[in-house]
Amino acid sequence: IGWREKRITGDEYIAFVDQFVAAVKKIWPHVLLQFEDFAFQHATPLLARYRDQLCMFNDDVQGTASVALGTVLSAVEAADSHLKDQTVAILGGGSAGCGIAEQIIAGMVEDGLSEQEARGRLYMVDVNGLLEDNMKGLSSFQQKLAQPGDRLKDWKRTGKDQQITLADVARQAKPTILIGVCGHPNLFTEEIIRCMAENTKRPIVFPLSNPTSRIEAAPSDIIEWTDGQALIATGSPIDPVTYKGKTYPIAQCNNTYIFPAFGLGVVAGNVTRVSDEMFREASRTLASCAASERKKTGALLPPLPSIREVSKDIAFAVASKAQEQGHAPKTTPEELRAKIEQKFWDPAYDS
Fold this sequence. Notes:
Layout: H1 10-27, E1 32-35, H2 40-50, E2 55-58, H3 59-78, E3 88-91, H4 95-110, H5 115-120, E4 122-126, E5 129-130, H6 140-143, H7 166-172, E6 177-180, H8 190-199, E7 204-207, H9 219-225, E8 231-234, E9 241-243, E10 246-248, E11 251-252, H10 259-268, H11 276-289, H12 291-297, H13 307-324, H14 333-343
Parallel strand pairs: 1-2, 3-4, 3-6, 6-7, 7-8, 8-11
Antiparallel strand pairs: 4-5, 9-10
Helix pairs in contact: 3-4, 3-11, 7-8, 10-13, 10-14, 11-13, 13-14
């Protein structure tokens, strides 16, 4: 299947994508171009290369980050806390993990921290341990998330070659939020989760890798190890967990909540550029839409059967933010709602 040729790389690869993007801009000058499933080494650099040339976004970087931030905001609300007060550890330093990290940092800044303070609260752990600023081979977007070596000089290091492991981070940074996007199963160990539970009343634990065979920890184990106190979301659909007679719904932190709604807002609002602030507005709206479900069942996200109405609210929020930033023509709220209804696809067919 496919073209049986070795994949091009380097300058030849960039030239090919440049040619494709130039053709898209010529044929469809008002297009919304969505990048999907680009490799780790290409996703973020290509986003930076084209985001100011046309209306585009990368769902693996920005959509994943947006739904993750929205679910984090919902969990923080459920824990009766604030984003600026959290300490975050992320396992998986690829494009998804780094995208999530940057949106959480930006959210913390909007919540009152300086950028330096926010970056100091985020610990990115990859295959070689905690990212440190003296490591070789880090990409430019990983380097921004590396911790300064002088902050870590007194830390205990139990990893191979003096690496700082995720367990080391759990013991010494005392994260209140743990997110996994590494694609390797069972790395959220009982030791790590119990360590979190000792240091925060409501640990927020998101093993987001999918399929379920790659999940960082089973929700049933996380609930047991935290005696039912953890707030959990996963990347794959997981049945509710019953523990000590109580049922715990497990939210599915899936891009489905964001990218269709985001695209709807862009198209209905005649948006010309996509900004990170628009994605954070989508995150906040998603968390807000989950408020009634949190109170009713404890779930961190709205039920999937309500996603059509949730999508309309997110689309409105995205297009409104675009208007505020000068990326879309001004309309009244009523006019924008009507355009969203007009553009909303209804899967109904003539019999």
